[in-house]
Amino acid sequence: MKKMLVTRPNYDKATSYTFYYAGLVIKEAEKKGINVIDLKRPRLTRNSVTSIIENKEPGLIFFNAHGNEKIIFGDKINKEPEVLIKEGENHNILNFKLVYARTCMAASSLGKKIKGGCFIGYETPFSFWTDKRIDAVPERDKTARLFFEPSNLIVISLLKGNTAEEAVKKSANLTKKTILKLLRTKEEGSMALISRLWNNMEGICISGNKQMTF
Amino acid sequence: MKGKIDPEIKKLILWRIDTGVPEHFKLVMGGKGEVDKKELRRHVEREDEIGLKYVEMELKFIKALSSGEFTKMLVADD
């Protein structure tokens, strides 16, 4: 049975949205009979991530977290985000893996150090607008949905057997359709939405084997 | 941190915030937290880390518009 590892911290606005949207991907995966290892509090720790990657060998790893050029974070431990993966320290555990990191910046350096696999991530901050009128309830926030649907589509496409390159292309096409729709409808704030959608789309980078599949 | 943004560019970005960002929008920019329109404006005014990053992203988009890169992406075949 195919296995997918998902990390889902949930301790601030950004992670509350990634937590919710990663949950939708998990539902899709489970419908397809994929064994999903869903790491969230209290199981989301560096030790458990390392152990699962080394011992259970998931074919797809989906990180949802904060990050930077060299680090992917996990949950907050003792009020500080725990470092799950750090370049030069333990990035080798991602070698030969298919990874999608919904984190800021990790593709600009860390992702390029992974050998023999494929790392999909962002070279820029992953940013999105939310609608503060609905008080940060991700499932009701139609504004944020515009940003998360193309991001989720990357993993959903990988679950369907698409290559990494095809998955990213499908995501970009969905973003393009959203931008065109916004241009037609002249929705309030459309240019603010379009510019951030553009940034996220342009910030996606695939390192390694673009033909890799799950 | 002061004086890092060209004054004319700063004016342009502030204008884009004033005219293009609805009052009910909040921007989430990775681990930098969330900011509403007024706060975003203040960050750009101060030229702090969030303000500089926002200006950088906006400039990238404006350059894509002016170079034709953005339009080229929209008309490209899927």
Tag the structure with descriptive keywords.
heterodimer, A: 214 residues, six-stranded mixed sheet, two-stranded antiparallel sheet, 5 helices, globular, B: 78 residues, mainly alpha, 64% helix
Task: Write the SSE topology.
The complex is a heterodimer of chains A (214) and B (78).
Chain A: E1 3-7, H1 13-31, E2 35-39, H2 46-55, E3 60-64, E4 71-77, E5 80-86, E6 98-102, E7 118-122, E8 127-131, H3 142-159, H4 164-185, H5 190-203, E9 204-208
Parallel strand pairs in A: 1-2, 1-3, 3-6, 6-7
Antiparallel strand pairs in A: 4-5, 7-9
Helix pairs in contact in A: 1-3, 3-4, 4-5
Chain B: H1 7-20, E1 25-29, E2 34-36, H2 37-46, H3 49-67, H4 69-75
Antiparallel strand pairs in B: 1-2
Characterise the protein shown here.
- The complex is a heterodimer of chains A (214) and B (78).
- By secondary structure, chain A is of the alpha/beta class.
- Helix content of chain A is 39%, strand content 23%.
- A 6-stranded mixed β-sheet of chain A has the order 2-1-3-6-7-9, sandwiched between helices. In chain A, strands 4-5 form a two-stranded antiparallel sheet.
- Chain B is mainly alpha-helical and 78 residues long.
- Chain B has one domain.
- Chain B contains 4 helices and 2 strands.
- The longest helix of chain B has 19 residues, at 49-67.
- At the A-B interface, α1, β8, α4 and α5 of A face β1, α3 and α4 of B.
User: How many β-strands of chain B, per DSSP?
Assistant: 2
Task: State which percent range the strand residues of chain A make up.
Answer: 15-25%
Q: Which range best describes the helical content of chain A: under 10%, 10-25%, 25-40%, 40-55%, 55-70% or over 70%? A: 25-40%
Rg calc of chain A: 16 Å
Shape of chain B: globular
Q: How much helical structure, as a percent, in the residues of chain B?
A: 55-70%
Strand order of the largest sheet of chain B: 1-2
Average pLDDT, all residues of chain B: 93
Element string of chain B (H = helix, E = strand): HEEHHH
Cα separation of the termini of chain A: 12 Å
Question: Which structural class should the secondary elements of chain A be placed in?
Answer: alpha/beta
Strands across the major sheet of chain A, in which order? 2-1-3-6-7-9
- Radius of gyration over C-alpha positions of chain B, nearest whole angstrom: 14 Å
Strand tally of chain A is 9
